[in-house]
Design brief:
By secondary structure, chain A is mainly beta. Chain A contains no helices and eleven strands. In chain A, the strands form two sheets. In chain A, strands 2, 4, 5, 6, 9, 10 and 11 form a seven-stranded mixed β-sheet that branches. In chain A, strands 1-3-8-7 form a four-stranded antiparallel β-sheet, with no helix packed on it. The mean pLDDT of chain B is 98.
Chain lengths: 115, 113
């Protein structure tokens, strides 16, 4: 069973850059897509984007100008960067395995943005 | 973007009774090449990440009890829970993966009556 563990700063100031890492253990990394999702009371569950082991990415157009997802296959890690955060980016951020149906999820990281 | 609208928002159900959650898509999510509906259902308990319950509209994910059934095609889908158990109390979401950006319904809260 694959395990996804997330880490990164949970408290940011407005205009700073959100940086999160998702580490994968206990399963195969290559050949799969890896996804970032966020959840907030106002927006519900929102798909941020995805990447495969080759680095092919697809982003939600609503965030595309500010988001970068990358991967380090040697470390089995996936990265999320979101620039110029505002209070609207306050959410629980999840990484997940898959493209479409998401069968395994990280534990979630609460990100709070202060002004 | 495809909009998914779930009903009801809240569903009180007695233990042992059935629960039915609906998900309506703003456009068809049936892939004509595969004849599969690209819809999934997730269960989210408080403080937990969502857990995949159903994919391809009607296929149970590994380890999911058979009291969970997904059905529907095109634009209208249903998740049915037969004989509600205490551990089924959660918020349930539908998700489409037919057209990027993948989107989710707003959620249906299943609680004990």
């Amino acid at each position: 069973q694959v395990l996804l563990q997330q880490w990164g700063a949970g408290l940011l100031k407005s205009s700073e850059t959100l940086s999160l890492t998702c580490g994968v253990s206990g399963g195969s990394f290559r050949g799969f897509y890896w996804t970032w999702i966020r959840q907030s009371p106002g927006r519900g569950l929102e798909w941020i984007g995805e990447i495969n082991h080759s680095g092919f990415t697809d982003y939600n157009p609503s965030l595309k100008s500010r988001v970068t997802i990358s991967v380090d296959t040697s470390k089995k890690e996936i990265y999320l960067k979101l620039i110029s955060v505002t209070d609207a980016d306050r959410a629980v951020y999840y990484c997940a395995k898959g493209r479409g149906p998401l069968g395994d999820w990280g534990q979630g990281t609460l990100v709070i943005v202060s002004s | 973007d495809i909009t998914l609208t779930q009903s009801p928002d809240s569903l009180p159900v007695s233990l042992g009774e059935g629960a039915t959650i609906n998900c309506k898509s703003s456009q068809s999510v049936l892939n004509s090449a595969t004849n599969k509906n690209q819809i999934g259902w997730y269960q989210q308990r408080p403080g937990q990440p969502p857990k995949l319950v159903i994919y391809w509209a009607s296929t149970r994910a590994s380890g999911v009890p058979d009291r969970f059934t997904g059905s529907g095609s095109g634009t209208d889908f249903t998740l049915t829970i037969n004989s509600l158990q205490p551990e089924d109390v959660a918020v349930y979401y539908c998700q489409q993966y037919y057209s990027s950006p993948w989107t989710f319904g707003q959620g249906t809260k299943v609680e004990i009556k």
